[in-house]
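Incident review: delayed structure delivery

Summary: a single-chain prediction request sat in the queue longer than the usual turnaround. Root cause was a stuck worker, restarted by the on-call engineer. No data loss occurred. The affected request and its eventual output are reproduced below so the record is complete for anyone auditing the incident later.

Affected input:
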Amino acid sequence: MSSLRNRFQEQSLVKQGNKCLEELDQCILDSSLGIEHFMREMGQIYEASSLGNPQASAEHCPLPALAAELLLDGYPFELLDGDASNIPEKWVTDVLMELHRKVGEKSKLFVLTVLGVQSTGKSTLLNTMFGVQFPVSSGRCTRGAFMVFLRVGEDMRKDLRCDFILLIDTEGLKSPSLAQLDESCEHDNELATLVIGLSDITIINIAMENSTEMNDVLQIAVHAFLRMKEVGKIPVCHFVHQNVAGLSAHNKNVRDRKYILDRLNEMTQIAAEMEKRPSVNRFTDVLDYDADKNNWYIPGLWHGTPPMAPVNTGYSEAVFDLKKNILEVLKTCRYEEPSQIPEFIKWMKSLWKAVKYENFIFSFRNTLVAQAYDNLWKEMTQWEWESRKNIYTWQTKADLQISNLEVNSFENQAEIQDLQKLAESLKSEALKMAATLEKEMTEKLDAYYKKKDRNVSLIEKNKIDFFHHIRDVHRDILNTENNKLDMAVTLKISTIKADDIHRKQKVMIEQKVLQLLQNSSDNKTPLSDEQLEDEFGKMWSREVVKISGLTEQNIPSSVFKQLRGDFSNRNVNEEFQNVETLTAYGMEPFKARDRHICTMTKFKLKMMMFGKKKKRKKVCRDFQRALLIPAEGLS
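Output delivered after worker restart:
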């Protein structure tokens, strides 16, 4: 490892290409080996074997039990794979359920999470506070999210009302190694939303007094807090300001705390508007937040420069005060009953599924960018509607032109050619009109970006995407209009053919009827009305079968083909793969299924039911206690 670092330092002095540096950096990362790598390997083996043959699966059944033993011994367990940004749900579920069984199904837990920018001392804070051993170093030492189970002592279980305190240490946000990736903002936002959703107490770690670097994290945190409030989960939030020296730091930073609260209120208003929650106007409407009580100032860990520098005792004292406050919060937190491991697993799965499929907010750096994007998208929608309205008006007139064109017979080729020429001229007109509308919409977008308000500069990098969207919209409009013109021409020709067949068949039927009447009158014994009606029916059946030019249409097949074309770009092709014909559908009344409900709505419903279930349990316990107290008094 030391030789790799020396080579990296030598190559960093060379000003030529950095390809060798990247390779050395990757070698250093690959050379890092800890117990978390063995745990991850166990999880991958276990998940892979569960998908294979039963014999291999049986051989690896003891793996969750081994991991559960390590958890009980205080080793960190990887919840979120930092390299793949994925939760191995089966592995995590089986390990936690094994731990639940090992403790006799007494696994009530409070979840405490720390979140912050990389290298701000998050792992050190938890290690000092609870005596655990999360890995610490400079740079990106934690990848993903790790959790440690702390068993609560018998003397404190009654006060804390839990059996374990679950600590979740997260990867640092705004990592320089990930900043060059396009998905870095999405990665940070997903991680922040996940851990905030899982936690009962969230510590947001801020380096120094300046919170500018945390603006992006605070904004996505507000979104997460707001969504948790919607489903009935109200976590506690503490802001920890690290490396702030001075005994009177708390009193001197009143203005900074007010600034943070003002920023939080501003972000809350934006988030509430995006989440369609008009009743929420301030951060205190989302959380029980006190700017004086929920902000902590902690001095630096070292006196001087390590490794010879002594440890600052003020750091430990400040962290101890924070720990005492957190324990007091747990004691007085009566509004929500601690969840057991099975409930925590259900919550984790629902939240992770919602995070994976709720893509809108996660694709932005912060809510200001999202709001600017949303404002422009509203304008784009209005411009698109105007374009479609204009083209619809023109299409109505074009359909009338085609339908009103006089064509007497399909056999008259001159009239058919006139119809085809009219269709071609209308298509040319539609092309010019679509180009004009696209140019107008492009000019409106240019004018919008020249405005200085609405934070337009924040979405400058999305400008090319909007131009591409305008192009795609008008291509779609042009293709739709061409299809409609083709359909109008086809309908006109079909109508002409039908009229020709109707005219010919009418003449033929009239001749057959006259011949039938003539035959009847020529007979020595005239036919009765019943006999005439019977003969007419036979003649009608014979002649109708002989009608040429009409073919039976397969309506379900045509509709299905049209559906495939209309939904080709809407991510539903997978659903169509399992459909062979539409004739088997629509035979029963419609019933809403799980797949008909969007992921976020399903998550909210599950969490609401989850909260109501816990509330019913609490009401039952309170009622039982109320019955027991008078009984004890009588005894």
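Verification: The radius of gyration is 36 Å.
Action items: add queue-age alerting; document worker restart procedure.
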